[in-house]
UniProtKB/TrEMBL annotation:
Listed name of the protein: Phosphatase NudJ
InterPro entries: NUDIX_hydrolase-like_dom_sf (IPR015797), NUDIX_hydrolase_dom (IPR000086), NudJ (IPR033713)
UniProt xrefs under CDD domains: NUDIX_Hydrolase
Family membership: Belongs to the Nudix hydrolase family. NudJ subfamily.
Length: 163
């Protein structure tokens, strides 16, 4: 194994309302794909701050995490580099907040869509990653972990000490 191997840390928001899940449709080199609002952990932020930021950027909605759904690991080809990358995804569930009217969605995000679990399950070829279905399945199975299971030492935070 290469000495420079590193996993890529990502976060995702699994949001359900009335039996439907909020997904984003995004442009990828493989075409339009579906994903939970998700993205990469950035330097100087906690996992919780990252999922709040990514949800806002990809859906224009505030998000309040209530529980950690789980931690997932998978391998996929990076659309940025074309190389295989191991992803470690921290998925959260919580409450979708207010729409920030007029806010543009992140580059590559075409739209948000609400889909039932059956609709999500029926189109695995459109999923950005197999972790999309794994997160929906775990949500439906009732998996939840307290947010205080996550600890971020202040040394990992930005200069302002943001959470």
């Amino acid at each position: 194994m290469s000495n420079d191997w590193k996993a890529s840390v990502t976060v995702a928001a699994v949001i359900e309302r009335g039996g439907r899940f909020l997904l984003v449709e995004e442009e990828t080199p493989e075409g339009l794909r579906l994903n939970q609002p998700a993205g990469h952990l950035e330097e100087g932020e906690s996992l919780i701050h990252a999922v709040i930021r990514e949800t806002l950027e990809e859906t224009a909605h505030a998000f309040e995490p209530r529980a950690l759904l789980g931690c997932y690991m998978g391998r996929a080809r990076s659309s940025r580099t074309g190389k295989d990358v191991t992803y470690v995804r921290f998925a959260f569930t919580g409450e979708l907040g207010a729409l920030e009217s007029g806010r543009k969605l992140d580059t590559g995000i075409v739209r948000t869509v609400w889909m039932s679990a059956d609709e999500v399950r029926a189109c695995p070829e459109r999923h950005r990653t197999p972790l999309v279905q794994a997160c929906v399945d775990d949500y439906l199975a009732g998996k939840r972990f307290a947010l205080d299971a996550l600890f971020t030492h202040s040394s990992a935070l930005g200069k302002a000490g943001q959470p």
